[in-house]
């Protein structure tokens, strides 16, 4: 039974579902709707007369027949991707859509300004930026590049390029600080309303020692922009990237505390999938951001 063009398209869709572990992830990677992905896979199953994917309300699992088919088509799809990337490099200028994921704080500063500069230099590259403080899955969600300030993937199929180190500060609004005695030692945070994103401990360094303070407060959020706004409103103290609140500190809207102690740093990196032929649009973005970020953040 020879494969038709429709079969080849359906096999491509099926392979992306397997790689993304979901229909929605495959749809995002392919730039189509979830219903199109589901229809293509179902048509392929009818054509072959076998079940390729077991579907439940909670998860997908590949069948033995599906695993055999994926092994046979994955290599061909990889070659097709590389050929497409090589052909794309024939163009005198990088072009195409580049999907980028970044946390809120980085997107606000300095990424927003850098994207304007990037667009001026590479007008034929359309950047689709997804901003979220959750940890994105590059492969499942179809991102070309992600900027990370937390843990990095241990999978060797990913490349991590260090951009710089962001300094952290503990700060509060003048109206909040006016209601409390000046802080002299980290343990005095136990008497304060400490606003948080994750975790319930703040770690400080003084000389060679580490000081761990179990903090608590009335607000825990999953968005750093909301955390900054709550701090500006005088709700409590927060642990924030210095670059995010640089203007607030300069204008006196926020003040740092416990400056004699170091509340840590954040390693900022670019993460992208290991590929033999990286698309030119991704290469120029990675090189551009690496150069610009290293000017914005001093390497730690």
TrEMBL record:
InterPro entries hit by this protein: LysR-type_TF_proteobact-type (IPR058163), LysR_HTH_N (IPR000847), LysR_subst-bd (IPR005119), WH-like_DNA-bd_sf (IPR036388), WH_DNA-bd_sf (IPR036390)
Family named by the database record: Belongs to the LysR transcriptional regulatory family.
Cited SUPFAM superfamilies: Periplasmic binding protein-like II, Winged helix' DNA-binding domain
Keywords: DNA-binding, Transcription, Transcription regulation
Transmembrane annotation, as ranges: none
Organism, scientific name: Hyalangium rubrum
Annotated protein name in UniProt: LysR family transcriptional regulator
Residue ranges annotated for the HTH lysR-type domain, each copy included: 6-63
């Amino acid at each position: 039974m020879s494969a038709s063009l429709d079969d080849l398209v359906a096999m491509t869709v099926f392979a992306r579902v397997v790689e993304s572990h979901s229909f929605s992830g495959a749809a995002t990677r392919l730039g189509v709707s979830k219903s199109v992905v589901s229809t293509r896979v179902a048509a392929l199953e009818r054509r072959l007369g076998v079940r390729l994917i077991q579907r439940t309300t909670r998860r997908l699992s590949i069948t033995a027949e599906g695993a055999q088919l994926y092994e046979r088509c994955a290599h061909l799809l990889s070659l097709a991707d590389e050929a497409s990337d090589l052909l794309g490099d024939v163009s005198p200028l990088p072009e195409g859509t580049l999907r980028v994921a970044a946390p809120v704080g980085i997107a606000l500063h300095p990424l927003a300004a850098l994207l304007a500069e990037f667009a001026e230099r590479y007008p034929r590259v359309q950047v689709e930026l997804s901003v979220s403080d959750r940890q994105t899955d590059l492969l499942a969600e179809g991102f070309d590049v992600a900027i990370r300030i937390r843990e990095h993937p241990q999978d060797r199929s990913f490349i991590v390029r260090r951009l710089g180190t962001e300094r952290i500060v503990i700060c509060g609004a003048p109206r909040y600080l006016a209601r409390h005695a000046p802080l002299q030692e980290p343990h005095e945070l136990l008497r304060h309303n400490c606003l948080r994103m994750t975790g319930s401990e703040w770690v400080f360094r003084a000389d060679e020692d580490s000081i761990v303070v179990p903090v608590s407060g009335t607000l825990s959020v999953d968005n750093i922009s909301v955390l900054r706004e709550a701090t500006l409103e005088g709700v409590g103290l927060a642990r924030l990237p210095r670059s995010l609140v640089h203007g607030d500190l300069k204008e006196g809207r926020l003040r740092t505390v416990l400056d004699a102690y170091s509340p840590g740093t954040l390693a900022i990196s670019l993460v992208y999938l290991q590929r033999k032929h990286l698309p030119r649009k991704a290469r120029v973005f990675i090189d551009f951001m690496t150069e610009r970020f290293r000017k914005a953040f001093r390497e730690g």
